[in-house]
Amino acid sequence: MKDSFKVCFCCVRSFKVKSSEPPEEIKTLFHDYSQNDRMSTDEMLRFVIEVQGEKHADLNYVKDIFHRLKHHGVFHPRGLHLEGFYRYLLSDFNSPLPLTREVWQDMNQPLSHYFLYTGHNSYLTGNQLNSNSSIEPIVKALRRGVRVIELDLWPNSSGKEAEVRHGGTLTSCEDLQKCLNAVKENAFQVSGYPVVLTLEDHLPPNLQKKVANMVSKTFGGTLFQCNKDEYTECFPSPETLKNKILISTKPPKEYLQTQISQGSTTDVSLSAKKVADAEEQIEDEDEETVAVEYRDLISIHAGNRKGGLKNCLNGDPNRVIRLSMSEQWLETLAKTRGPDLVKFTQRNLLRIFPKTTRFDSSNYDPLVGWIHGAQMVAFNMQSHGTFLWMMQGMFKGNGGCGYVKKPDVLLSNGPGGEIFDPCSKNLQIKTTLKVKIYTGEGWNLDFSQDHFDRYSPPDFYAKIGIAGVPLDTASDKTEIDTDEWFPIWNKEFEFPLRVPELALLCITVKDYDSNTHNDFAGQTCLPLSELKSGIRAVRLHDRAGEVYKHVRLLMRFVLEPC
């Protein structure tokens, strides 16, 4: 079979097209686990236990595999032949992650013990300067499993109603009621675990009262409310909060303090004494007169970053709080006070948001937050790129429910009371991940003939890497397989790991081009905490994270304890 490319009116380039066939190592394995070129159910059982590490497997498990292969036309009553075995290895039911979307982690711990799938400016469709606001990004995020939705609330032009918009920009506004309805209708479509609605409000007390009434009326019994003394030592658990919506924002009193503080910096005529008098008046004022309806909605209190970088991690001795900081603050603290970040997040919630100069809605490295225990690493979900792929990869874990339990290393201190420092140079290697990438297929079915190159088949190479604590982070790549729709690499990599429970395996395939940029050909990120050993079919996704129908890699994973 030949692949022909028209170069000009009178010239055609032809390339011999290889079919997708088993690599030599796969052929050898088949012969080791078969007799007379047929693999029986007993022999397949031995293979899935010894090579695939499926210790729970029994004959029913194997019979189910054989039954599924019947639909591929590669099954024989006397057992699998080589082609059938190869089709099984490349099939969807030979995934590197658990097939069932079951929540398997303990969901009865406080919220602070989990990473939450978190969005930033969830209503924006594009950039941060002049894109449209809409309910569509909110709906899409919730249906992908995102559990934290952010709305920015501002007074409308008349000052009589609240609206959703990105203040100080040319982005359009969206109706608040439509946004609340979108959350209500889609909150629990893919996960029953709680949705946190973070309200970054810039409202006076009269509009806060109106918003409180809208929220209460819209969410009704699904709205979680608690008195201020109910959860002081720790947050409730995701299991306790199933099918509930939680409101997180600053209490009204703190809103007024913020307004006064801003006024003192912008209005030079406002003296320090007047500021002090105003703050004292707030302290003395009965909270019943300060948007009490709004205050009572709040189940996760957002604290102020009092004292700047020096004191922001002191927390509140009277209750657990949610603290927000920019990626820049996080990076600074991570370099100088890493263990303090970890300690703060053992009890409190920490939300990280993108720096304000990310006008294009790009994202930052989420691992900086995660390895320090930050639960809410807020991302622009409408964007693309490596960091968003990592976010999507992390939350493939735990059945895709939007909550991933933090590893014990972030939750408990060492025998001498020492707190985990993810940037320490003294972390010991716990395990080694061996990754072998054999081949790939499906590009000829999911892409047009001239998508990668007008005059020849693609020149694919794969990049394999680990994202985790600094000492674990590494990457490597295969050779380029030239002019092949079915590349064969047979390349093995080794990654020594100190904190495998915080690591992601990141895979990207590109088409090499010596004259222009290399063309994207698929990606995926897999959480190591759920990676299955053995030879697996790894499906690739497009830039937006949508899975390709046919494109996949054949890879082998082995985790060897140190």
From TrEMBL:
Which parts form a coiled-coil structure per UniProt?
Answer: none
Compartment annotation: Cell membrane
EC supergroup of this enzyme: hydrolase
> Per its record, what are the GO molecular function terms?
phosphatidylinositol-4,5-bisphosphate phospholipase C activity
| GO biological process entries | lipid catabolic process; response to stress; signal transduction
Question: So which cofactors does this thing need?
Answer: Ca(2+)
Q: Name one GO cellular component term.
A: plasma membrane
The membrane topology of this protein is:
Peripheral membrane protein
Give the E.C. number(s).
3.1.4.11
Write out the catalysed reaction.
a 1,2-diacyl-sn-glycero-3-phospho-(1D-myo-inositol-4,5-bisphosphate) + H2O = 1D-myo-inositol 1,4,5-trisphosphate + a 1,2-diacyl-sn-glycerol + H(+)
Q: Name one Pfam family in it.
A: PI-PLC-X
Taking every annotated instance into account, which residue ranges of this chain make up the domain PI-PLC Y-box?
324-410
Q: Could you list the residue ranges that cross the membrane?
A: none
Under SMART domains, the record lists: C2, PLCXc, PLCYc
- Main subcellular localization, coarse class? membrane
* Annotated C2 domain residues: 415-542
Q: Which domain of life is it from?
A: Eukaryota
Keyword list, A-Z? Calcium, Cell membrane, Hydrolase, Lipid degradation, Lipid metabolism, Membrane, Transducer
The protein's name: Phosphoinositide phospholipase C
- What organism is the protein native to? Cardamine amara subsp. amara
